[in-house]
Amino acid sequence: MSYDNDNVFAKILRGEIPSTKLYEDAETLAFMDIMPRTDGHCLVIPKTPCRNALDATPDQLAAVIATAQKLAKAVMAGLDADGVVIEQYNEAPAGQEVFHLHFHVLPMREGVKMRAPGQMGDFDAIAGYAEKIRAALV
Ligand code: AMP
């Protein structure tokens, strides 16, 4: 399995398609998921190429999980979430659709289930959650 430079997250990293950015540092980028499974669903990726956790280096994984923790804390505080799921899929049979390593950060609320995947979110609502998450980043 090789890395495809034309995957959608590589295009976001190159600025070829837009994203609602939340945070970036030298190694990672966090942005909003456009098909959110919960309100405030966001993604964390490494800036360097790797397909998923199977070919990632320990350094890539460490950087991405550190940023995922930062975003998890921000969604808890900024969106007043009751809990947060951090999850990651490897290869299509496991549910991976975009083949650039990413961790999902999903704010959870008491009694509210995740929506089915693949439903486009409301852009104004996503922008509103993004503003609150950014404001809660420390
Ligand atoms: P996965 O199934 O783990 O590969 O998840 C890929 C995720 O990327 C899904 O939650 C999609 O909604 C999300 N996604 C796909 N295209 C974009 C995009 N252009 N910007 C933000 N999120 C995206």
From TrEMBL:
SUPFAM superfamilies: HIT-like
Database matches in InterPro entries: HINT, Histidine_triad_HIT, HIT-like, HIT-like_sf
Motif extent (Histidine triad motif): 100-104
Record's keyword annotation contains Kinase: no
Domain HIT: 8-115
Highest taxon in the source lineage: Bacteria
Entry GO MF terms: methyltransferase activity
GO BP field: methylation
EC numbers for this chain: 2.1.1.-
Keywords from the named record: Methyltransferase, Transferase
Record's keyword annotation contains Electron transport: no
Official protein name in the record: HIT family protein
Organism of origin: Seohaeicola nanhaiensis
Lineage: Bacteria, Pseudomonadati, Pseudomonadota, Alphaproteobacteria, Rhodobacterales
